[in-house]
Amino acid sequence: MQEVIISLSLSAEKYLEYYRGYASGVIAYDTLGRRVQLPASVLRQFVTHKGIQGVFRVKFGAGNKFQSIERVA
Predict the structure, then answer these.
(1) Given Cys at both, which of 36, 55, 57, 69 links 73, Cβ 3.0 to 4.6 Å?
(2) Domains of the chain, with CATH numbers?
């Protein structure tokens, strides 16, 4: 299993675009500069009235398929 650390800062308005289905994936960059794409739905648990801010650990399984995400800071 591979894991990466990403930093996200999405406003509430920006996340609404994902929530409404205008976009299905969120693209971020890990601490090594690699591009990481996540299904927007996995971020729902972290949304506040200010949006989504924080540092997250993302785990991927076989075929780079999303497994889990957790806030680390």
Answers:
(1) 55
(2) 2-71 (2.40.50)
